[in-house]
Amino acid sequence: MIRKKGPEAGAQDTSLLIALDKSGSPGTIYNGVPYSSFEDEEEDDPIYVHGDEGYSPNVRGNYFRDGQTKIDFVLVWEEKVRPPKKRRGKLAAPKARDDRPGGHREHWKSKFLNNLRDAGLLMEKEETPSERKTIHYLKLSAPWDVLVYYAEELCMRAPLQAQPNPDQNSSAEVLRQLRIPNALHQHVPNKPPDYYTCAFRRSKLDKFLGSDSRDSYFSNTQRHRIVSEILARTVYGKRKRAEIGINRLLNERVYAAAFPLHEGPFETPESEVPDEALNPRQVLYRFWAQWGCWYRYQPLDHIREYFGEKIAIYFAWLGFYTAWLLPAAAVGTVVFLAGLVAMGTNTPAQEICESGGQFLMCPLCDTCETWNISEICPMAKVEHLFDHPGPVFFSVFMSFWAVTFLEYWKRKSATLAHHWDCLDFQEEEERPRPEFAAMAPRMEQNPITGVKEPHFPKQDRLSRMLTGSMAIVIMLCVVLIFLVSVIMYRGIVSVMMYHTGNAILMTQAGNIANISSTLVNLALILLMSQVYTSLAEKLTRWEMHRTQTLHEDAFTFKVFIFQFVNFYSSPFYVAFFKGRFVGYPGQYGTLLGLRNEECGPGGCLIELAQQLFIIMVGKQIISNIQEFVIPKLKAWRQKRKLARVRGAQISQEPPRWEEDYELIECEGLFEEYLEMVLQFGFITIFVAAFPLAPLFALLNNWVEIRLDAQKFVCEYRRPVAYRAQDIGVWFLILEVLAQISVVVNAFLIAFTSDFLPRLLYQYEHDSQLQGYVNFTLAYSPLRYVATGNHTLCRYKAFRDANGNYTLFYWKLLAVRLGFIIAFEHVVFSCLRLIDWLVPDVPGSLELKIKRERYLAKQALADNQEVLLTQAAFHPAA
Fold first, then answer.
1. Any residues with CB less than 8 A from the CB of 865 and at least 6 apart, and which?
2. Is the pLDDT of residue 5 over 70?
3. Alpha-carbon dihedral angle through residues 43, 47, 53, 55, given to the nearest 10 degrees
């Protein structure tokens, strides 16, 4: 039992005794009396004010009024000011507590605060009054004994021995060995030190580094995590109803917000100060979040020290992914430029341009007229940009790139997890979610903890999950309905363009219809994304998953399945279905009375490239605009609301807790991961049709890193520093996308590209592709009336005059199937070899892990055990 004295001599006695209650948790005794004895006396305002109210040396800092006690967390609630009603010239008597509007909330709040006091937290209250509303700020601080108790219970890591903390950038080492100046490197001040660590134990406190300095032994993020854990465990109602934790109180709107404070402002001082004198938030802003740092390495250790491992691992993955996009973008750009250079030597395009009126083509619609193939000369040249041997090589390269990237990320993730003391991190037995606890129909005993907690029958959950799956299927059907609508829109627009009579519009009718329909499709995709994300959130909540992890995984699965179909259905249609079921003159296939779509004059591959460019780049531009504008609008609205409350005090500089309350609540990382995973799908699945996709992804990610950094540093309230050792379920999704990309690119090259038909024609007829255009055009079995004469028209297919497939078609089909089998087996075999050759954990890291375990064993062993061990190895002693 330790006595803690007040802040200054002569002040009111504020001695605080920390003890253990019956459950083993820290309890609080004030002036020799348990806090629970004051519950009846302090019913209206159960706030213990730590320190002298008149002493306020630094009200803007992250300290109590005594200037010494750190603020670890802030609870905020708002109360409307209601003037008392008069009755016959007298004030009306107040109603009983339970009869007042929101009376149960006041009771919950009172009991919650009393239990927080009993848990050992120090409290201090501030208010911002106005005529309409009063905002209450409750500052919380965890004293030393509470920190020590929960640090051991939460298995926090403590430092044993310092070690060098070099930069973890592999490119910096390569440039150093090549003696090339590294423009990406920058010196970031106050780099956090690195230690060999082990699990914290109170009984071995003297074995750990820095234990003689209690004020700085626990970092601010560790203190935040401990207080957050206390807030999550504290009961505010009946335990059997699982009325526990701050999250449920926030859902019930008992509190408006709960957050740790930022380490001061992010704006750097106007006067010149040394970089080492900046606060951690200013360091992150100057050396990370500013746009001028777009080409610099990210200070990951500083990010982890300030925001915790879960956010730091996201930025580490995003930076690692962006760095790996550099070689992919370089190779893709070279492939694109190679196609650009070879445009002039493309024999089929030259034959089309020089054909004149030699090839009279069949009408593209039932009311259209015949046309000459020479009219598509520009499109035939542009097609070679995306349909030449280069994309075949690039698709194989990107398959190897994707798997190698994932393998090396596992190594990077393991290194960071050890460096940040999360390698052996496993989530403890999670508590039930607040919504689950509130809606569960009965209580049952947890087989692990032995404590009764809310329970939802498994059969009922399975039936709800089945119903939710049906809702997903219905939404996917809606997506397909929109896809059919876009297809019909494209057909109607192309016919309308043709019937205008304008030569330019008639020639470019297909391109105009394709581009406009893709823009419409993009708008529908974004609209459906918003609708379905809201629906998926409600469905997942209705399914009653017990823990937050299960809830997030189910939500992630639902949203990703929908977004996969939502974003990729149109490119899949163009790549593998458009132009496949057209038929031939006299036997055209129809859909809802309209002829099935044919590929445009330049082929389906160039239409696929157009779609990928518009959907991918358009989505990135719109997302970046939203990420830049929406947080600022939310912050402006929040500041305006609080400015009305402060009123006359608005000219005064607000304290830290008020400034942070003006910021918006952190929205988490789900949307950020989802955006990057969808982008990963675009640059791997359809890369054979769009070699420039990695380049556009690279440009977007340079912007994305700074936008996300500015949101976390400048716009968001400081989130709790949660731990994490990897990116979780998203890695499994990336692996699935990498496997899908191999199969899709094989089919894309085999059936959508002209690579194999040209290769087979070169083998059988002419190596220079002379006469290839004429060979690919079949004669229609029917005669069309054109310019007053009966004539035969041509259409692109390997058919004879009767409409039957030629022998070349069946040979080509065999070659295509053989190519797919060979492509997949070779690529997948090489990928398995890469997986086997590249270990998940680097050898140097294994050595460090063994060294750390040895030091931990030595530090935590009892003296008697050490003596016995020494005697065993040195009998003479």
1. none
2. no
3. 170
Contact 866, 874 (CB under 8 A): no
Taking the C-alpha atoms of residue 339 and residue 327, their distance in angstroms, rounded to an integer, is 19
Nearest alpha-carbon partner for 156 in 547, 428, 522, 455:
428
Mean pLDDT of 477-483: 88
Count the Cβ atoms, other than its own, within 10 Å of residue 320: 20
Distance CA 686, CA 693 (A): 9
- Distance between CA atoms of residues 433 and 428, nearest Å: 14
Instruction: Give the domain extent around 101.
Output: 1-53+62-156+202-259
Taking only Cα atoms into account, the Rg of the chain, rounded to an integer number of angstroms, comes to 34
Query: How far is 659 from 667, CA to CA, in rounded Å?
Result: 18
Q: What is the C-alpha separation between 33 and 11, in angstroms, rounded? A: 20
Closest to 514 (Cα-Cα) out of 495, 496, 491? 491
Q: What is the pTM of this model?
A: 0.84
Cα separations in angstroms, 526 against 473, 522, 610, 616: 19, 6, 18, 12
Distance in angstroms (rounded) separating the CA atoms of residues 266 and 651: 20
Determine, yes or no, domain membership for 5.
yes
d(CA 517, CA 476): 20
Q: Dihedral of CA 350/351/354/356: which sign?
A: negative
Our count of domains for the chain comes to 2
Nearest to 813 by CA among 801, 803, 805, 823: 805
Average pLDDT, the chain: 79
Is residue 365 a part of any domain in this protein?
no
In a domain, 693, yes or no: no
The per-residue pLDDT for range 593-602, each reduced to its tens digit, is: 777 777 776 6
